Amino acid sequence: MIALVDDEKNVRMTIKTALKKEGFEICEFANGQEIYDALHKGLNPDLIVMDIMMPVLDGIGALRKFREEGIKTPVMFLTSRDEEFDKVLGLELGADDYLCKPFSMRELVARIHVILRRFSSFYSDSRNDTNDSEDKLHCDGLELNLASYTAAIDGSAIELTVTEFRLLEAFLKNQNVVLSREQLIQICYPEDTYLNDRAIDCHIKRLRKKLSVKKSFDEKISTVYGAGYKWG
After folding, report:
1. Is the pTM of this model over 0.70?
2. Which residues, at least 6 apart from 48, have a Cβ–Cβ distance to it below 8 Å?
3. For the chain, what percentages of helix, strand and coil (3-state, to nearest 5) are there?
4. At what angle do helices 84-93 and 197-211 cross, to 10 degrees?
5. How far apart are CA 144 and CA 29, in angstroms?
6. Nearest residue to 15 via CA among 41, 44, 50
């Protein structure tokens, strides 16, 4: 089930129609307070797709309340291009992805599939039929499972957002290669190339913190000033 939160009814209707064609069950809400109340009444969606600018309780405020109360349901923000500060703040609070308006329904559906693969052990697609050994990356006790979008260090799982996972996958596939911020933006947000450097820096900061559970990973992601980032 996907919870769709947007104060514009016509936007909800358009997205709902597209997602229903993909077989998703949809529940609708007009603002952050409505979805917040629904979660406390027992609603348990697989994903929340939520606008930022809404009356009563906006998307940022709702996400902050979710995370403060330990609600870990993945959240994808729908934003306008001129809301850069709110987008970065949302990422810092723990949003899993965002998509800027206007966007294609195909891109929205693709990103939803990626997030659901990452968060639901019951979700599957054609990638499950691929060779298991080809779907894993390894480095000094770090294992990345590309089919299930899960990661572990020395056998202990680490929780990554979809964007953090994509970044880590890019680093492991390009060890000792400097990746520019522009390249990382293309990897994480292939259709949102107007994203600024600060958002990538934010993701890198969060990823470094999560990897620091192993001391030897403290400086695995190094900053190459004026060029970008490098693993190794």
Report:
1. no
2. 2, 3, 5, 35, 73, 74, 75, 76
3. 45, 20, 35
4. 10
5. 35
6. 50
Closest by CA to 58, choosing from 105, 102, 93, is: 93
Ramachandran angles phi, psi of 72, nearest 5°: -100, 10
What is the per-residue pLDDT across 105-131, written as a single tens digit (0 to 9) for each? 988 998 888 788 766 643 344 344 444
Structure tokens at 151: 């990661």
Closest CA to 5 of 34, 38, 44: 34
Distance CA 79, CA 90 (A): 10
Closest CA to 169 of 131, 193, 202, 142: 142
Residue with tokens 């609600």: 71
